[in-house]
Amino acid sequence: MGRAGPFPRVVFREEVILALDRYSHTHSVGEQGGFLIGRKQELKSAEKFEVLIERFVPIPQRSGASRLVITQEHYDSVQSALRRSGRGEEIVGWAHMHPGFGVFLSAFDKEQHERFFPEDWQVAYVMDNLSAERAVYQMVDGEWKRLPGYYVLREMAENEIGIAAGKSGSPWLRAVLVVLFLGLLIAGGSYGYTLVRDLYFAPTPRQTVVEEVVPEPPSIALEEQPEQGPVEEEPPAPAVPAQTTVTPPPTVPRYTEYVVKRGDNLWSIAQELWGDPSLYRLIAEENGITNPSHITVGTVLRVPVDPRSND
Length: 311
Description:
With 311 residues, this protein is an alpha/beta fold. It has helices spanning 14-26, 72-85, 107-116, 171-200, 266-274, 280-287, and strands at residues 9-13, 33-42, 49-58, 90-97, 123-128, 133-140, 143-146, 151-153, 255-259, 300-304. It is 27% helix and 21% strand.
């Protein structure tokens, strides 16, 4: 993800990325997160070390919390469990969600990172599931850096075949392969070309058209009924004219005004007005607010009276 370069090599197992995505979508209100568990390996290159992230351990947090709070009890319980497992794993960082606020680290987030994750190989992974953004941060000598990219390690299935190629090869071997390639094309004709194409070049994916098959209605066998005498039909009842109900236009205004007080944010305003902090986005959209965490005291906001009418 992103680009590679001479910075710490951070590798997520694919199942960890999937677990983080599922967790962020099922906990989309407030900040949630947890510990990243894995292994660290020193490298003799410009990257210095590699961090392999193998598991995600969520931190218990109340729904709708305005910030993710890590306590010493949380940290000690995870460390104790890792020591008992004896698998050589350690805490390599943490992850948390900023739904609707972008991928950044607040001053409180940085303070927690410096307290619980002081090593330069421990990372902070931030997600915004509403905008589908992700970022990895690292702190070195008190300086914060956003990594330009990271890796996702995908396990190959049993029926998949991988071909590992060396970085360098003998020129004689390459020449022999070229001669064999040309000989196969000449001797085999079109069959040889097809074989070589399938071996050395990725086939072009073909578009598959799926036709919808509409099942025919089942045939119904009709049983022969005995003959009956004529049946007298009752005269139809006279039709009753339908009544039309005219609904008067609503007299309740759809919007009202709210004056921002000290200590307010869009989450707390939505909680105060409607009892649901996740509706903050209606206030942001109505007033053209791009950063919901920064609003000025005394600002007059235009808010819906009934947010359900705007769904």
